[in-house]
Amino acid sequence: xxxxxxxxxxxxxxxxxxxxxxxxxxxxxxxxxxxxxxxxxxxxxxxxxxxxxxxxxxxxxxxxxxxxxxxxxxxxxxxxxxxxxxxxxxxxxxxxxxxxxxxxxxxxxxxxxxxxxxxxxxxxxxxxxxxxxxxxxxxxxxxxxxxxxxxxxxxxxxxxxxxxxxxxxxxxxxxxxxxxxxxxxxxxxxxxxxxxxxxxxxxxxxxxxxxxxxxxxxxxxxxxxxxxxxxxxxxxxxxxxxxxxxxxxxxxxxxxxxxxxxxxxxxxxxxxxxxxxxxxxxxxxxxxxxxxxxxx
Length: 296
Description:
- Keywords: Dioxygenase, Oxidoreductase.
- The protein is α+β, with helices and mostly antiparallel strands.
- The chain is 32% helix and 19% strand.
- The strands form two sheets. It has an eight-stranded antiparallel beta sheet with strand order 1-9-6-11-5-4-3-2, covered by helices on one side. Strands 8-7-10 form a three-stranded antiparallel beta sheet.
- The two termini are 24 Å apart.
- The model has no long low-confidence stretch (mean pLDDT 96).
């Protein structure tokens, strides 16, 4: 029964996915308890709980901050990031193994590749010295990430290149609207290049991270369906259902470079449609806390 108090989300798990327990409300109970634990950890962090950015994150599930770094600092960070990425790319050219769907990690010295259909995700290890230390010590970044996840700040950042594939040849399942987890978790992208609509921007339905009555009902019904069919826990949803059930719109977020986009990916989101071959360059971070731990 320990799985109940872990971060496990797959309904293929014999306990998490037990149909009888979920009929009795197991899934909803885990959501409720995880939210209580998150609120408690945030209070214990001793940070400013009334900050405007945190209030926006709690209300909308997404925060967008333009001109996040001073221009001189940003230009140094961008130049050194692109130089590192180019060096790694020259040493370890991308190899397309023809993976379909959610592909496996393929490690190389200095990072790893993973494909979503035909779309490449290349992650590069990010140094902690020099200009990168300035990024890691940026006060607003540390505060927002810590409060968003209810965790003490640690370095979970990588440099990131997203290269879009051809949807007609090998579809990218990240373009289907979904939630990541049953509890709040944070993903963020700090753009090192302009992101236009052609570049497949991050798309998010603001407010859908909140456990409203409608969202709880939806979660309950989906938990029963997933338990019957041994499905994963990253439930998918159509744009029409987002609109009709929750009164929200799945909105793309094209942004200029030097913009921070941070989202609670319990809310419904996806990768936007893109022109094949276009790229997004960013610093990427993912913070998925252990949902039931009492201390940050």
